[in-house]
Write a structure and sequence with these properties.
Length: 284
């Protein structure tokens, strides 16, 4: 891994993204690239256009006004992004990290996927700039980024005040969950942290066998491993466990079902991101 890609915007999550990226970069011994994306907005399309009901002269004036608004908004967005990148860069450098920054125009999802090609880890906030108005939801673009990304995605909570003191792995015996275990076992990021393997929605004998197999590579890597099994729904069991281990980081596989199936039956991944108040690392 040569670098971490950390994506910031004007949301209340920007500071957490920067601090979480700093923690990860120090643990992995890599540099950080800060990315801010300016979306091109059509001011005309963004407003209700009633100009067809008024005279041609007024319509021309309206279009000119909207063009001026669009230009001013674009300049403001660019300046805002520059300020955010400067502040984030200084914060990361204060941790002794090597930092670069990119200020790009384009679609958020497409730009992030393009920039992550040379990165080993992507760090984003749970919600975007309008997150304070939708506290019980994850950002729509966040979910799209996670689905489109080929890299592990580290999702920052609203507040990140201290380094994680333990690792909670949500384990369901899927291929993605097995890769999550392998990542924890092989990454210096988690060195020295105790690991909790949590399984939900399974019967105890099978669940304990599943967790015993999952714990083996972790113990062989030198980790202290505890296991917890509950027959309840993952959407309740895992958040409840995290509430009792608030100083942890949650590691889990990302989106085990197709987008169509997820649309119909919901997604444990989305629920975990939405309800967890700790950093969440999603592994493909």
């Amino acid at each position: 891994m040569s670098r971490i890609l950390a994506c910031i915007d004007a949301s209340i999550y920007a500071t957490s993204v920067v601090d979480l990226a700093a923690w990860a970069a120090k643990g992995l011994g890599v540099a950080v690239e800060l990315l801010h994306i300016v979306q091109r907005k059509d001011a005309i399309a963004a407003r209700h256009d009633h100009s067809g009901a008024i005279g041609l002269g007024v319509k021309s004036e309206l279009l000119e006004e909207l063009t001026r608004i669009e230009e001013a908004t674009g300049r403001l967005a660019i300046e805002e992004g520059r300020i955010l990148l400067d502040a984030g860069t200084e914060r990361l450098k204060s941790h002794g990290l090597t930092v670069s920054s990119m200020h790009l125009h384009g679609g958020i999802v497409e730009t992030i996927v393009e920039r992550e090609a040379d990165a080993g880890l992507l760090v984003i906030g749970k919600r975007g700039a309008s997150g304070q108005f939708a506290m019980e939801h994850i950002g729509s673009k966040v979910e799209r980024v996670v689905r489109a990304s080929d890299k592990p995605v580290l999702i920052a909570p609203r507040e990140f005040k201290q380094s994680p003191r333990s690792v909670v792995i949500a384990y369901d015996d899927s291929a993605a969950a097995t890769r999550a275990v392998a990542m924890v076992a092989g990454s210096p990021l988690f060195s020295g942290l105790p690991v909790h393997l949590v399984s939900a929605g399974v019967r105890e004998p099978d669940g304990r066998d599943i967790l015993a197999r999952a714990a083996e590579p972790l113990r062989m890597a030198g980790f202290s491993v505890g296991t917890f099994v509950d027959e309840g729904k993952p959407e309740k069991v895992i958040p409840d466990y995290l509430m009792a281990n608030a100083d942890s980081i949650l590691v889990m596989g990302a989106y085990g079902h197709s987008p169509l199936r997820t649309l119909i039956v919901g997604s444990t991944t989305t629920t975990m991101i939405r309800t967890a108040h700790v950093p969440v690392l999603l592994v493909r």
